[in-house]
Design a protein that fits this description.
The chain has about 350 residues and is mainly beta. The chain folds into 2 domains: about 1-60 and about 215-340, Sandwich (Immunoglobulin-like); about 65-205, Sandwich (Immunoglobulin-like). About 15% of the residues lie in helices and about 40% in strands. It contains 7 helices and 21 strands. A 6-stranded mixed β-sheet has the order 12-11-14-19-16-17. A 5-stranded mixed β-sheet has the order 1-5-10-9-7, with no helix packed on it. Strands 2, 3, 4, 6 and 8 form a 5-stranded mixed β-sheet that branches. It is globular, with a radius of gyration of 20 Å. The structure holds copper (II) ion. Copper (II) ion binds near residues 142, 187, 189, 195 and 200.
Length: about 350
């Protein structure tokens, strides 16, 4: 508890070494945020349906990505057909060092794929041939380790195949897309926790051959955290990197629309993450490897690298929260809203 309190106190005081004046001001106003569409939330203290938040906005264009866009940004690769008729998908992944403004005025020296955190959501269909052309433009050795089924030399770990890909080097990982489901990829260089926490990860979706049942919206949510002072503890928590982004920018959906969330947990340092949906229940498909849901619930938890698909519709209009049910995570950024309209 003391540790948690001291971390929060540090954030509120803007006392971190990397916090500039703007960051300190932004965090000093933790309690004042809320979307303009929700006047009941424009209060100094959190009320029903509101977490304390951040004021101001990170510079998304300087970051090179916007969490709102990441929700629906799927990379299907460059598609062609092999002589035997198999579909070939080719992707480009470039590891780079990049400064990301993770909260207003607070920069984080990240390592990322393709300039964004999380990296691109790679999407294929079961049975496709995948070629992932990886170039390391970062100042440190990295790899790409995919979850899925593939040969040893394509495993993206030190010692297997090309092993670590050095600065300026490239390698093409090639394997079949299997099994269908919701997977992930990440760097597997050591120290592993640091290489992942710095931002080298992304979502990897393998659609079933027959496709998933039709829905109105598909959203990618990567639960992650930021250890701003490198003490192996997270100082911010988020979905798609920017704390409170979907609280400040609620995700618009309509009553009755079928929503599918691809939810991946890439949080380092904390063993368990969770997802709670307000005023609703969802069907849950762990790892997305079955078309039959395992549970009908309003909360699930995921350990590191666990993932699953959530499907739901809203019955009533309103501003409905979704957040980690671990309150510490929610209050430090892992909280968002769906704006449900008729
Ligand atoms: Cu790495």
């Amino acid at each position: 508890m003391n540790k948690i309190l001291s971390r929060r106190a540090l954030l509120r005081a803007g006392g971190l070494g990397l916090v500039g004046t703007a960051g300190g001001a932004a965090l000093a106003n933790l309690a004042a945020a809320g979307p303009e569409t929700a006047p009941s939330r424009a209060q100094a203290t959190p009320g029903p349906g509101a977490m304390p938040g951040t004021t101001g906005e990170v510079d998304h264009s300087r970051n090179g990505f916007n969490p709102t866009d990441i929700l629906t940004d799927f990379d299907y690769g460059r598609v062609s057909t092999l002589p035997d008729g198999q579909t070939l998908r080719e992707y480009e992944l470039v590891a780079m060092d990049k400064t990301i403004e993770v909260a207003p005025g607070i920069d984080y020296p990240a390592w990322v794929y393709n300039g964004r955190m999380p990296g691109p959501t790679l999407r294929a269909t079961e049975g496709d041939r995948l070629r992932v052309h990886f170039t390391n433009s970062s100042s440190h050795p990295h790899t790409v380790h995919f979850h899925g089924i593939h040969p040893y030399e394509m495993d993206g770990v030190p010692g297997a195949g090309p092993g670590l890909i050095q600065t300026g080097q490239s390698f093409t990982y090639e394997f079949e897309a299997e099994p269908f489901g919701l997977h992930l990829y990440h760097c597997h260089a050591f120290p592993l926790a640091r290489h992942i926490a710095k931002g080298l990860y992304g979502t990897f979706i393998v659609d079933p051959k027959e496709g998933w049942p039709a829905v109105d919206q598909e959203l990618v949510m990567v639960m992650n955290g930021i250890d701003i002072d490198f003490d192996d503890e997270n100082d911010f928590y988020a979905v798609n990197t920017i704390p409170f982004h979907y609280q400040n920018h609620p995700i618009p959906i309509r009553v009755g629309e079928k929503i599918r969330i691809f939810l991946v947990n890439l949080l380092e340092f904390d063993p368990i993450n969770s997802f709670h949906l307000h005023a609703n229940f969802f069907h849950y498909y762990p790892t997305g490897t079955s078309l039959v849901p395992s549970e009908y619930t309003d909360i699930i938890m995921q350990a590191q690298a666990q993932r699953g698909i959530l499907e739901f519709s809203y019955k009533y209009p309103g501003l409905f929260m979704f957040h980690a049910h671990k309150t510490e995570f929610a209050e430090l950024g892992w909280a968002g809203n769906f704006q449900v309209r008729e």
